[in-house]
Amino acid sequence: MGVVRERQLFTVACPTCYSAIRGETVEGSSGLPEFHLPGLTTLTSERGEAEGQMVMVYGDLPSSADGGEISPFLSAYHVFGDHFEAYLKSVNTVRLYGARVDGLEHAYGFYLRERWDLLDSVMRRNFEEAWPDNPSALDRHTKLHRLIYVLMFAMDPVGAYPRAKYELWSRTFKREAEFSQCAHSVISTAEFTSTNRRVAEQFLSLLRDYAEWLPTLAVAHLRAAGKSVPTDWRVPVGRIDSLRDAYRQNFEVSCQILPLVIRMQNIAEGREPEVLRDPQDANGWTPRVLQPRDYVNNINQYTKAKAATKEAYLNRHSALRYYWNSAFSRDVRNSIAHAEFDYVMHDGLITYKDREAPYYVFIEALIKQITLLAFWLDLCKLYKIYGSRWDPQGKTFLGLGGVNT
Questions:
Q1: Average pLDDT, stretch 294-314?
Q2: Which residues have CB under 8 Å from 380's CB, separation 6+?
Q3: Tally: H helices and E strands in the chain
Q4: What is the C-alpha separation between 306 and 300, in angstroms, rounded?
Q5: Pick from 2, 94, 205, 262: most CB atoms within 10 A?
Q6: Gap between the Cα atoms of 386 and 182, Å rounded
Q7: Which tens digit of pLDDT belongs to each residue from 129-167?
Q8: How far is residue 191's CA from residue 324's CA, in Å, rounded to a whole number?
Q9: 282 contacts 292 by C-beta, under 8 angstroms
Q10: Can you give the pTM of this predicted structure?
């Protein structure tokens, strides 16, 4: 086994009986790795010699299905070619953020509660290089999220995040005063605060468990480089039950955040923020794919609508809709909801609705969901910035003072 840090989880299939063997390696006092296999007993032959087969795994990289003595590191090096060094830098970035997630979680908790003095203290202690000595009110919004944005470059090699951000943000800039007024009313609600908190908790929880999905990052980078994924690649399998739950929760919190997108689209097109379709207006905003019974007229109805209806209203956001579709599969999430989703250990496959796909395809979607969660945090930040710059007495937008949002 290739050991790359002090503690490294691994899962491997027994080449004889296909049982899942879970354990971890830790760095021993001698500097060499020690293997911890809780609940397992090592069997020996009558001669006292261990019998078995060699299985080669590497905690941060896919390995070949046939195992053997082929180094996953060298195998990945040959597959990636000139792109391998850039990929390893991305892996190191994820590890760095994973190791500092506690500090990031503490900081974001103070950010949500607007405890600015404690936020400054935590950021200076954990991220001194990124935090100014005398941060302004706007700095406290932008600097924290910019840290997360750096991580997204490692996790989103195709650039879905920045494309969707440009698409959505640029429409808002055309009607800043109207958006500021809307944001001011939205951020004061308990619903906004709780949704922002749930998204943050989900994002930070998955970042803390980065060892569960990091090996599949190789697949995402390989696709971005225009290279084919080897058919015999396998990735160490994480806790499929918790990852399955995370998939469902990611979808649920993402659906809860979508009303913020719809309000921005309404404002960009000159409508009231809360109105989607005026029943008297034949040219109102209604996706063509919907049946009349599924039409919604306002944000309140949209919030209560079924998921398929909410997704349909992303039809005017081509980049965001592509991002959404690449992160969520309706068949997969419905299979999870109906307990029709399974993992076959010895084949390295997930099965759902009489379909099969490599396990890494499921985890690849999960990685895209993590970046989408970061996108939602960025969106909540935008609402908080603009909402804080609205003067309710004078009913005017105070401007941003050249701040890059």
A1: 92
A2: 192, 195, 196, 199, 257, 260
A3: 15, 10
A4: 12
A5: 262
A6: 9
A7: 889 989 998 899 999 999 999 999 999 999 999 999 999
A8: 22
A9: no
A10: 0.88
Structure tokens at 68: 């053997």
- List all residues 6 or more positions away from 290 whose beta carbon is below 8 Å from its beta carbon: 309, 312
Residue 29: partners with Cβ closer than 8 Å, 6 or more residues away: none
Is the pLDDT at 310 greater than 70, yes or no? yes
Interstrand relation of 233-234 and 63-64 (parallel, antiparallel or unpaired) = antiparallel
pLDDT tens digits, one per residue of 37-77: 777 776 665 555 555 666 666 667 887 766 555 677 888 88
Q: Report residue 45 as tokens.
A: 């032959």
CA–CA gap between residue 214 and residue 389 (Å, rounded):
39
Nearest residue to 275 (alpha-carbon basis) of 295, 255, 252, 247: 295
Residue 369 tokens read as: 């969901």
Residue 56 CA to residue 51 CA, distance in Å, equals 16
**Dihedral (Cα; 97, 102, 103, 108), 10-degree rounding:** 100
Say how far apart CA 177 and CA 139 lie, in whole Å.
Answer: 21
Q: How many CB atoms lie within 10 A of CB 356?
A: 11
Report how far residue 219's alpha carbon sits from residue 364's, in angstroms, rounded to the nearest whole number: 7
What is the radius of gyration, based on Cα positions, of the chain?
Answer: 24
Q: Which residues are paired to 33 by β-bridges?
A: 27
For residues 267 and 178, is the Cβ–Cβ distance under 8 A? yes
| Helix axes 101-113 and 116-126, enclosed angle (nearest 10) | 160
Query: Between the CA atoms of 360, 364, 367 and 372, what dihedral angle is there, to the nearest 10 degrees?
Result: -150
